[in-house]
Specification:
It contains 17 helices and 17 strands. The chain is an alpha/beta fold and 505 residues long. A 13-stranded parallel sheet has the order 3-4-5-6-7-8-9-10-11-12-13-15-17, sandwiched between helices.
């Protein structure tokens, strides 16, 4: 129909087609002319509505399915499902699923679009609805970071399908829902993240911190971070703006400061601050502001190469201390005041030959030696009568542990990045009940662990492409529970009762 004919049919309209067009363009707010001769709708929703209506009236579902993978067509498809009669929307959704099965590249996007369309389909063939829901269940909730990143790449269509906290049973899956929304970004994503602000699961708290940088700093702090008590998990601040915004978070009792921040004075003003971890801070030289935070019990300084004086920490009631790659001139004597420290994570190379030369108090119960401290001898291990937890990243230290004074008291052992690991050494630890192998490759497999009479918990982690851990030799250990990292490959797990194999996702 020509414009003039259309106006003839609308007797209430006065003016020429040119006059009406000018009015719509200038006065209505419906149209815009970004370039001479190019006219479009200002609001895509109105345009999408008309497109969906036209497609349904013409029964042209093929064009909708053909373009359904395109973000700009998502609203059109959903509106078309709403406009269509029951048999038509059944046909449209079946065609969407059929195309999803035929195209690997767009499969997930098309399945999620079909799922998002269900709320616009009050009347629908139950079999089709069930099939859409079945295929969606394979995608949601995301069970790993990789799955979250893949879903986020699909864009906003995924947001309305992400489940709320009460709908996600698994802890890490809940965190990955937050991550997915954060990676999508935007106002709708913010509302998804906000639903999780009262969820007290550790993974959720961790991913809320990661999500912070993707939204308005102060608003996020006030509305999402402030309602929580941050004690088990550190609230992480990376930018100066985030550090300042912590004033909105009254219960930030554990703070992780990431990146270069030369001045820690703002931390000194916080009441009830119990834990501070400073990571990768190349500008930090002076930690004096921490001296006035008398509530501090845990401090970590990692990758702070200009920090050379630990004396401001001397008067604090510290029970946990992490020191990793500080200035090489830090004197080992500055460890002497920390008599109450129970846990020491050491990656700084003090100028000593053995751990026995470290002036650590007799209260030490846990000692983790990071890669930077792998050349330290374990001589002197027996001087800490309460030491029960040990972390090593050196094959030579592990060999030295075998038969060393005090080794018979070790109950928890963590080994990190050891190739050709000789587990027969570990088998000589009679009290060992918990063992973690992080990216290790046991030369003889896991069979030597059968000789550990007290072993009840084994944690294994490795990259997905690594050789699988063979659990078969451990199948007869009825009291052993095995925890596998998210993508850690393993075989023989079918030999264990389901409750004794825990897969972290």
């Amino acid at each position: 129909m020509a414009a003039g004919d259309g106006l003839t049919a609308m007797s209430q309209v006065r003016g020429s087609p040119q006059d009406v067009f000018a009015h719509l363009l200038i006065r209505s707010g419906l149209l815009r002319e970004p370039a001479p001769g190019a006219v479009g709708f200002v609001h895509r929703t109105f345009q999408d509505y008309l497109g969906a209506k036209a497609a349904v009236e013409a029964r042209d579902f093929g064009v909708l399915v053909k373009h359904a993978h395109d973000d700009q067509w998502h609203d059109v498809v959903q509106m078309a499902v709403g406009h269509a009669r029951a048999e038509e929307r059944t046909r449209l959704l079946r065609q969407l699923l059929k195309r999803a099965a035929q195209t690997r590249k767009h499969r997930n996007r098309l399945v999620l679009l079909a799922a998002a369309s269900l709320e616009h389909a009050p009347e629908l063939d139950p079999a089709v609805r069930a099939e859409v829901q079945r295929q969606t269940a394979d995608l949601l909730p995301p069970r790993s970071r990789e799955e979250a990143e893949g879903l986020a790449a699909l864009g906003e269509v995924v947001l309305e399908l992400l489940p709320g906290p009460s709908e996600v049973a698994h802890e890490w899956a809940a965190g990955h829902v937050v991550l997915t929304a954060a990676l999508v970004g935007g106002d709708a994503a913010y509302e998804v993240v906000k639903r999780y602000r009262d969820d007290d699961r550790i993974s959720v708290a961790s991913y809320l911190c990661e999500a912070w940088s993707r939204f308005d700093t102060d608003t996020f702090a006030r509305e999402i971070l402030a309602p929580r008590v941050w004690d088990t998990v550190h609230v992480s601040a990376t930018t100066a703006g985030q550090l300042a915004a912590l004033r909105h978070v009254p219960e930030a009792r554990a703070i992780r400061l990431l990146g270069s921040h030369a001045d820690l004075s703002s931390l000194a003003l916080r009441r009830g601050l119990e834990k501070v971890f400073v990571f990768d801070n190349k500008d930090l030289r002076d930690i004096t502001p921490l001296a006035s935070v008398r509530s501090l019990t845990e401090v970590g300084l990692s990758l702070c190469p200009e920090v050379r004086d630990l004396s401001p920490l001397a008067g604090l009631p510290l029970t946990w201390l992490t020191l990793n790659r500080l200035h090489p001139d830090v004197p080992v004597e500055q460890l002497e005041p920390f008599t109450d420290v129970c846990t020491m994570v050491l990656g700084h190379r003090f100028r000593v030959r053995s751990i026995g030369e470290l002036p650590l108090g007799r209260n030490l119960k846990s000692l983790v030696l990071l890669w930077e401290a792998t050349d330290l001898s374990l001589e002197g291990l027996g001087q800490w009568g309460g030491l029960e937890t040990l972390g090593l990243a050196s094959a030579s230290q592990l060999r030295e542990l075998h038969g060393a004074p005090g080794s018979h008291r070790i109950r928890q052992l963590s080994l990190d990045s050891l190739g050709d690991l000789d587990l027969t050494v570990v088998a000589g630890l009679p009290a060992l009940s918990m063992l973690s192998l992080n990216h290790c490759r046991p030369a003889q497999g896991l069979a030597p662990l059968r000789e550990l009479p007290a072993l009840t918990q084994l944690t294994l982690s490795a990259k997905a492409e690594a050789d699988p851990y063979d659990l078969t030799p451990l199948a007869g250990l009825d009291t052993l529970t095995i925890t596998l990292g998210g993508d850690t490959p393993a075989i023989g797990d079918e030999l264990f009762p389901p409750e004794r194999i825990i897969r972290l996702r």
